[in-house]
Structures are given as C-alpha cells and as structure tokens.
Amino acid sequence: MNRSVIVIGAGIGGLSAGCFARINGIGTKVFEMGTGPGGLCTAWKRNGYVFDGSIHHLAGTEEGSAPNDLWKALGAFPADVVYSDELVTIKDAEGRSLRVFFDADLLTQELKRIAPEDGQMIDAYVDFSREFEHLDFTEMGFWKWSDWPSRLVKMIRVVKRGGASMSEYAKRFHNPVLRRFFPTFQYNWTDIPVIAHLVIFAGCRQKRYGWYPGGSLAFSSAIARRLTALGGEIHYRSEVEKILVKGGRAVGVRLKSGESHYADAVISNATEYATMVKFLDGQYMDETQKAWFDHPVDAMRMGLNLSFGVNRDLSAEPPSLTLFAERPFEIAGVWRDCVTVQNHSFDPSMAPKGKSSLKVHYDTHYSYWEQLANHPERYREEKERIASTTLDQLEAFYPGIRGEIEAIDVATPLTTERFTGNGRGYGDPSVMNSKQMLRSMLHKPLAVSGLRSCYLIGQSVGGAGILGCASMGRNAVKALCKERGWKYQR
Ligand SMILES: Cc1cc2nc3c(=O)[nH]c(=O)nc-3n(C[C@H](O)[C@H](O)[C@H](O)COP(=O)(O)OP(=O)(O)OC[C@H]3O[C@@H](n4cnc5c(N)ncnc54)[C@H](O)[C@@H]3O)c2cc1C
C-alpha cells in the first residue's frame, strides 16, 4: 500500500515529522518556502562570522534519555556537545560581578559573597533548584505512565512553592545588588515564573541541556540530511498557498507557483494563523482561534536580535553576560537598564580564528516595527541607531570594541517573519488556555476540527523549544497512523 504525507515547512517540527513519516514507510515531501532547513533554528554568515538565530540551550543532551533517543533517531546527535559551568555572568557599571554557577555549592558561595546578609534565602533558593534536577516539565511528553504519579506529586509541590515571577522572587532578598541582578538570571525574562527558570537551570546542571557544536544551522542541517537519507524529499523555494481538501480530508497542497501536489495527509509546520486563515480560508477555525487571531499578542520575547562580528578573541569571557548600564538607554521605544549578550567564542566554528561572534537580544513589540516599516528609511535608521546604542553599552565593558567590529546584523520581528513566517505573537505560552497548555506540555499536535488527516505542529501551536517541536512532529505522525489505521513502528 502506498501511503504518503505532505509536510509544509522544514522547521524543526516539519523535519522531525518528515523523518518519522519515512521511518514508518510513508512517502514524504516537504515544501519549504525558504532556501534552507531549520526555520527559526538557523544561522547566517556575514563577513566570515556565523550569526546564530536560536539555540542557547538545547534540551535532550543527556545520554540514554528519551529526548536524546529522539535526537539520535533524527541523526542530530554528536558526541562533543559543549557544556558551560554557568548560566550567566552579570556585571554592572560599578565593577560588581556575579557568576550564576550551575554547581549548587559554587552558586551558594558566590551568592553569599555578594549578599552575605541573605544566607538563609540563598540556601532556600539553591535548595529549591535541586528539586528540579530530576523534574523537567518540558519533557512531560516523554514521560512513561509509570513516571506520572510520583512526578505529578512533585510538580504540584514545586508549583505551590514557586509560583512567583523572577521579579517577585527577587524581593525576598535584602541585598540591593542581588535584588537587581536576580530577575535577569534567565535571559533577562523578569516576568517568567521562577520555576520556569529553575527547570532550565537545574537541567543545565544535570547536563540535560547543552550547546550543539556549530550551532542552530548545523543542528537543523543534520536532521535535513537524515530526512533525505531516509528517502524523504525537501523542496526549497516552494511556498504553499493552500491546503487542498476533498470529502472532509486534507489531500494535498497548492504552491504559490501554481503547482498542486497530492498525498494522503498534510502536516503543517507553518504558523497556526497561516494554516487556519490562509491555507484553509478560515473555514475550520474555532472560537478560541478567532479571538486569538483578532487580538494577536504584540510582545515578542527575543524578537530583536543583534549580532556583531568582533576582531578580538573573547574566548576567555563568559558564554553569556548581562551587563547593567550606568544609566537607562532606549531601544525600540522601551527604556532598558541592561544588555544580554551571548558570546559564541567557545565554539571555533562561529568566527574566524582569534575573532568572536556576539549576539545581543531584546524583547520587543511587533507593532513598533510594523509601523516603522511604512517608512523604509526610518526603519533602516532605527536599526543602525539600535546597533550603535548597543555598542555604546558594550564599549563601557570592553573598551575599544566599537573599533573592532567587522560585521553587524540586526534582525527585527519583520526579518524573522520574512524568513520563517513567524510573525506577531508566535508561540507565547502566556496567552494559552489550560487545554492548549496541556497539549503543549504533552507535545501533542493540533488536529483541525472538522477536517481529517490534517495536523498542525511547531512553536505557534505550543511546541516548547526545539525539543518540544521535534517531539510534536513525531507525535503528528503517530496520530496520523492511528487515524488511518497504519501501523506505527517507533
Ligand atoms: C532568538 C531565539 C532563541 C531561541 N533559543 C532557543 C533555545 O535556546 N532552545 C530551544 O529549545 N529553543 C529556542 N528557541 C525556539 C526554537 O528555535 C523554536 O521553537 C523552534 O525552532 C521552532 O520550530 P518550529 O517547528 O515551530 O518551526 P519554525 O521554526 O516555525 O519553522 C517553520 C518553517 O515553515 C516554513 N514555512 C512557513 N510558511 C510556509 C509556507 N507557506 N510554505 C512553505 N513553508 C513555509 C518557514 O519558512 C519555516 O522554515 C529560540 C528561538 C528564538 C527566536
């Protein structure tokens, strides 16, 4: 029996769905509008420097774990994952510095060095972090039935204990420096629950998260190679415009070029908005989707990414830095007090020898850039101004750096949208209802109600990070096999 599926988009979710379809003997064609694999999980080159668009922490690096098995099945796991000793080093303009070590004892010492009066609270925080060493909510989709009872009890306990946001939690410390630094520990996301921080933090301590050598594009390219080795086809520069429907079932796609392609099912890794509104003409939307699409989230975490190629060896510097400025500065209409820097010089493939690739990201608002885009000259000037303001901040900590810059790239939310289709409000868990949140945590694809053989996967439907999206891709194939009565092998 010939069985076939069309996958829209070669993001991590789409590549994973394609691989698992092939593993299960299903003929697979992936149509990707861009020129390469990865979607958001990508990188680009400028003047010999590699600028990375995604991975800070790749989940699933623990040998022998179910997530690691998934990566191995996808051909994306090397032996030489890079692990850091610390989450971030925070510095301020007065010369104070704090290293947020993963190791619990080193961390305790370091926090007590900076805030001796907060000994008890520091012990409580470090002790709380230990609770997450064997409890990772983001891996719920991999839990076995036998894991659930004990982990659920643990989960309820930690949620009760740690509902506070990073900013709220910081108020429990008395020391003014720690109160200022603490909210920025996790990517400077001051409003996330402290438990969301601790899941990643303790996971890094346990080496469940790491850095893939070569970064995001090397990672997604490895999966794309596996897909083609398994006999799947990836068609780049092939933008999908419509999902074709017959007898209440998705039966294919029509490309922008006018070509039509047919299969037994369609899995879409494009956004929920694009799939429901554009590809399916809004015919299958439910009330939640309608409300969501009418009022999309404007705030975009890490929506503004600046990359700098620096003619200086910064490999002795920490991989991640938060630098508090002497005085507030304005970026994209918002006053900021610090910059967060990813220093990729620990990976020699990211820059020419003796040089360094840096990334600075800011949260931003889609509408700010959307309005600017009406005035192309102002849009371009704003990008230049933001790069210059950011360099002023870096200059305060690394004197002379401005003169060593050899490449600059500023990617706004509109840049990301142009290259990956992910626009306003993509995948923001803060606006999910409880049903969506549960589906997201279990890595379940979204089935289109009223339409058979059509599944949505990826970040915009709740795929949490790279691992969540890949797992959702696999689960879409599983759901499809179940629906069609096809044997699912893995
Ligand atoms: C700055 C940043 C840092 C991040 N850091 C991390 C991290 O440290 N760890 C982590 O786990 N995750 C991280 N993420 C998140 C992670 O990168 C994403 O969640 C994940 O890559 C999304 O995958 P996806 O399956 O949703 O596919 P997407 O990346 O959304 O890709 C969708 C693909 O579909 C294609 N497409 C869209 N429309 C069409 C169409 N009409 N026709 C054909 N093709 C189409 C797009 O071109 C794209 O290639 C980060 C994200 C960002 C932006």
What does this protein look like?
This protein has 490 residues and is of the alpha/beta class. The chain folds into three domains: 4-42 and 216-295 and 425-484, FAD/NAD(P)-binding domain (3-Layer(bba) Sandwich), CATH 3.50.50; 99-206, no CATH class; 299-420, no CATH class. It has 16 helices and 20 strands. Strands 7-6-15-16-17-14-18 form a seven-stranded mixed beta sheet. α3 (104-114) packs antiparallel against α4 (119-130). The radius of gyration is 23 Å and the shape is globular. The mean pLDDT is 94.
Number of domains: 3
Shape: globular
Residues in β-strands, percent:
15-25%
Distance between the ends: 19 Å
List the helices and strands and how they pair.
Layout: E1 4-8, H1 12-23, E2 27-31, E3 43-46, E4 49-52, E5 58-59, H2 66-73, E6 86-91, E7 97-101, H3 104-114, H4 119-130, H5 148-161, H6 166-170, H7 176-181, H8 194-205, E8 209-210, H9 215-229, E9 233-235, E10 240-246, E11 249-255, E12 260-262, E13 265-268, H10 272-279, H11 287-294, E14 299-310, E15 320-331, E16 334-343, E17 356-365, H12 366-372, H13 376-397, E18 405-411, H14 413-420, H15 434-441, E19 446-447, E20 454-456, H16 465-484
Parallel strand pairs: 1-2, 1-13, 2-9, 6-15, 13-20
Antiparallel strand pairs: 3-4, 5-8, 6-7, 10-11, 11-12, 14-17, 14-18, 15-16, 16-17, 19-20
Helix pairs in contact: 1-9, 1-16, 3-4
Bound molecules: flavin-adenine dinucleotide.
Flavin-adenine dinucleotide binds at residues 8-14, 31-34, 39-41, 54-59, 239-240, 269-270, 274, 302, 305, 361, 420-422, 458-459, 463, 465-467, 469.
